[in-house]
Write a structure and sequence with these properties.
By secondary structure, the protein is mostly helical. It is built from 12 helices and no strands. It has helices spanning 2-17, 29-32, 35-56, 60-80, 83-99, 109-129, 131-148, 159-174, 187-195, 204-232, 237-253, 263-280. The chain is globular. The termini are close together.
């Protein structure tokens, strides 16, 4: 976990000193092939570092370092312009704050809710009022919120319109072979035939259903279910918080991207799984 956090900090510093952090476009596509994939890597690091900062680190200097890396991670996610990752980070940190207890075991829900409200208001104003952030992520977030609330219709040919079309194509294609699907990594070929675009469905759920059918879908998400049950039953409030918040954050991003074949998801789920067993064995130190 700490190695991953230090890796993200090093990447942030390299991007900054090579003038690739603040650019005229979303960062990440040049070296990962996709800004959303880059955002996913930095989002997972944010999950780790914010938990280390809020729950794990007791030493003052280590806590400051964890806090600084957390700020680096969320900055990188914002600059990637990945809306789902931004929302996942917000939901994740809200859950961590609401689950946090003081030394006496009290949660201070009202104080934490007020603090969360202040921070979210400031973040929204920053995205809307800072010209640079507005062009990168603010405008995209505004569009997403307006479309979700029904205030704005998806323009034909827009990114949101095409993604919705791909998801529907995957669902209708899945119905032709609902049990076993059509084969691993096969949807983008089908999409090329139906829509003329050789791309994924931009939704992990529909992608899995089309490729691997309901059998593969259940087999894949059974691990999420198993880890969630472990987290809910954990005696450690900190491990319970990162498990529930982490699984919810990943599921949220999976509505807008395909990640079942990315190693970062496997790493994150393994860490959650391992954390729960370390707590059971009373070996949480050194995570």
């Amino acid at each position: 976990m700490k190695s991953y956090a230090w890796g993200s900090a090093l990447l942030f510093i390299i991007l900054y000193y090579t003038n690739n952090l603040f650019t005229d476009e979303r960062i990440g596509s040049d070296f990962t092939g996709n800004s959303n994939t880059f955002a996913l890597f930095m989002m997972v690091s944010f999950f780790f570092t914010s938990w280390l900062f809020l729950y794990y680190e007791k030493n003052k200097y280590k806590k400051i370092i964890a806090g600084l890396i957390t700020l680096m991670d969320i900055t990188a996610v914002l600059l990637s312009g990945a809306r789902k990752s931004v929302i996942a980070c917000i939901i994740y940190i809200i859950i961590l704050f609401l689950c946090k207890k003081d030394k006496q075991g009290r949660k201070h829900l009202i104080r934490n809710i007020i603090l969360i409200g202040i921070v979210l208001s400031y973040l929204w104003k920053l995205m809307m009022n800072n010209p640079y952030l507005y062009e990168i992520v603010g405008n995209r977030m505004k569009t997403l919120v307006n479309q979700s609330l029904g205030y704005e219709v998806m323009a034909r040919g827009s990114s949101s319109y095409l993604r919705e079309k791909y998801r529907n194509t995957a669902i209708f294609g899945w119905l032709k072979s609902p049990i076993w699907g059509h084969g691993y990594d096969s949807f983008h070929f089908y999409n090329a035939v139906v829509n003329g675009h050789n791309v994924y469905s931009h939704n992990n759920f529909t992608e899995l259903l089309y490729n691997l059918g309901i059998v593969g879908f259940i087999f894949y998400y059974f691990e999420y279910f198993k880890i969630t049950i472990l987290g809910l039953g954990s005696q450690s409030s900190s491990v319970k918080a990162i498990t529930i918040a982490g699984v919810m954050g990943i599921l949220l991003t999976e509505y807008g991207q395909v990640d079942y074949n990315l190693s970062v998801i496997v790493i994150f789920l393994f860490v959650l799984y391992k954390l729960n067993f370390l707590v059971r064995e009373d070996k949480i130190n050194g995570v």
